[in-house]
Every structure is written in C-alpha cells, then in structure tokens.
Specification:
Elements: E1 4-7, E2 12-17, E3 27-33, E4 40-45, E5 62-66, E6 69-71, E7 77-82, E8 87-92, E9 101-107, E10 113-127, E11 134-138, E12 143-146, E13 149-152, E14 156-161, E15 167-168, E16 176-177, E17 179-181, E18 184-187, E19 196-203, E20 210-226, E21 230-234, E22 239-248, E23 252-257, E24 260-262, E25 268-276, E26 279-286, E27 295-303, E28 306-319, E29 325-328, E30 335-337
Parallel strand pairs: 1-10, 11-20, 21-28
Antiparallel strand pairs: 2-8, 3-4, 3-9, 4-5, 5-6, 7-8, 9-10, 10-13, 12-18, 14-17, 14-19, 15-16, 19-20, 20-22, 22-26, 23-24, 23-27, 25-26, 27-28, 28-29, 29-30
C-alpha cells in the first residue's frame, strides 16, 4: 500500500496486492483514524470471518464495519477485487478530516502479513466562525484582534485595514505597517483613528484563500466643535447653525435656545449628516428669523462615555431704507456701517 494525499471532498483509493494467496482466506483492511483513536474500520471478504449472501447473483459481497456501524457498498466505503482477486482496492469517498489516518491490509498468515498506508488530507484554509466579528475597546486601552485559521498545511494569516490605511501598533502616531503577519494583531494605546474594519486573510497554497473581517470600535466621550461661534442673520431671513461632533458610540444630540430645548417646528428644522466612522455634523436651521430668535443656542452631545456641548450666538442684522447696514450685536448698541456708492 502507498500513502495517499488528497483534497477534502475527493474520493481516494488504497490498493492491496496479494500474491500466492493459497489457503489463506481472511483478508482484513483496517483503518485507525487520526481524529478518533477509538474508531477503526474493518473490511472482511465474503466466506471469511463474516458471511453475507447475495440474493440476486453470485458476486462476492463485502462487509464493511466501523465500530458497530455496517456500511453498504457504494456508501462511504467501497471495496473492489480485481485481477483474479490478487488486488483489492479500498475506496474512501468524500474524504474529510475524520478520515485522516493509517490504513493497513492484513492476511491471516502466521505471522500475520501486513502492509500499511496513510491518508494525508490537504484542506483549504478556513477561519473558525467563533472568531469575533466586532470588538469594542475604550480609547487609550490595548486590544488584540484574533483570527483563528485552520487547514492543512497550516495556513499563514495576514492582516490589513479595509480602508488601506497604515496599521498603527503603538498609539495614533506610533510605528506601523500596511500589513501585519500573524494570527493575533495587538494594538496598544488605541485612539479613535484606529477605528476601522480589519481584514485577516488565511492562505496555505490550496485555493481558495479565506478572509474574515473584524470591526474595531473605539469608544470615547463626545467632542463638539461649532462651525462658527457667532452667526449674524437678517430679520425675516434664516440662519444655519452647525455643530461638528466626534463620538463613539454615536451620541444623542439636543439643541437648546436660552435653556429651552428646540424641536422641529415651523420655526426650526433639525438635521444631521454622518460623514465617516465617528464623525457627524448636526445642523439647526432657523426659519424666518424674528427678534425672539436672536440669542444663545447650545448643541449638546451625550453618549455612554460623557457629555460635551458648544454655544453659538445668533445676532441680528438689519438693512435701513437709506441704504445703511445696521448690525445689531445682541444687547449692545447698533453699529453704523456706511454703504459705499458705486462709482
């Protein structure tokens, strides 16, 4: 018998050649499976230790036994004699990891004659589905992303960021690389800039390669930055107030005017735009501005990690009938601006 190397799912054959069989009638093909040392497969020829009688014709039947389970020909296993019973072929169908092991052909001589072969299985890489697909870590802490890949031969694992950015191993500005080789990717002192989708690719030379994505979420308290701290608007017109926010998880946003919360209404319109990952833009539009809508507006962001807010002052601007522009600066006296005549 010879060793056999096969791909997962293939059918394989072990051949046992017997010369001068003579009076020795007991042919036993045994298998000791690598994945289960308590399991063995035995194949007996008809009229030997066991007898199976066909009803349709006089062809020789084969009894195939694995522990107490009996297999029919053409199921998982098949045995075919050929060349006047001098050669016996054991066929193992749809081979899996559980079929890996040593196979032997034995004859009941004294001493027993035996020949052995081994089934090696080549398995394309695969990533265990127990591998986490999302990981959350507090900003400033360390985290390890793991990719548990299997196959035969054992696969190599390469990590990269889905957005093609550099993988920083030590803080937001620490040393980094475009790829990392190894099953465990360790990141220290993570910042919000580490937030991304990380992809591990397992390969062992047997196609196809397999990839697995892990989303890294870095949690931190909100930071609110107003686009402008002062907005000047004409009475009867409209004003747009914008707060840019960085936060994860995504925050709950509120707008207030002089301490009272502002909602969507005939006077106000609230909207937001999510730009990327942890950044978002929150917009308050003031419609048809009247005197009571000038004042201080506050946008507040809240998540599980903290609270942050910013104030925006809305001031009035009026156009006099004489062509002069009057800018009303809150409670201060109006400042007179002269409109220059065109030449």
């Amino acid at each position: 018998m010879q060793n056999v190397t096969a791909l997962k799912g293939q059918d394989i054959e072990f051949m046992c050649r017997i010369n001068n069989l003579g009076k020795h009638m007991l042919l036993t093909i045994c298998a000791q499976f690598h994945s289960d040392t308590n399991s063995a497969l035995q194949v007996f020829r008809q009229r030997d230790k066991y007898e199976v009688r066909p009803r349709v014709n006089n062809d020789e039947w084969i009894l195939i036994v694995k522990n107490v389970q009996v297999f029919r020909q053409r199921d998982k296993y098949e045995v075919r004699p050929r060349v006047n019973n001098d050669e016996w072929i054991l066929i193992v169908k749809n081979v899996q990891e559980s079929d890996v092991g040593g196979y032997s052909c034995q004859l009941n001589t004294d001493p027993i004659l035996s020949r052995a072969g081994y089934l090696h299985l080549r398995v394309p890489p695969y990533v265990a589905r127990t591998t986490a697909s999302a990981v959350e870590v507090r900003e400033g802490h360390n985290v390890t992303l793991s990719c548990r890949a299997f196959g035969n031969p054992p696969p190599t694992v390469v990590w990269r960021r889905q957005d093609r950015q550099i993988i920083r191993f030590n803080g937001a500005t620490g040393y980094g690389a475009s790829v990392f080789n190894g099953s465990d990717l360790m990141l220290t002192k993570v910042s919000r800039k580490h937030m991304s989708e990380y992809v591990c690719v397992a390969s062992n030379g047997i196609p196809p390669d397999e990839s697995w994505s892990v989303k890294l979420h870095v949690t931190f308290e909100p930071i609110v930055i107003p686009q402008s701290k002062v907005v000047v608007a004409i009475e009867g017109g409209q004003a747009t107030l914008v707060c840019n926010v960085e936060a994860w998880p995504r925050p709950t946003m509120t707008w207030e005017k002089d301490g009272e919360e502002v909602f969507d209404s005939t006077k106000y319109a609230l909207s937001q735009q999510v730009s990327e990952k942890y950044r978002s833009m929150h917009i308050l539009t003031i419609k048809d501005i009247g005197p009571d809508q000038y004042g201080t507006y506050r946008c507040t962001a809240v998540n599980d990690n903290g609270v942050h807010f910013a104030d925006i002052i809305v001031k009035g601007k009026m156009i006099a009938s004489s062509g002069f522009v009057l800018s009303q600066l809150g409670p201060f006296l109006p400042i007179l601006f002269t409109k220059r005549k065109s030449e």
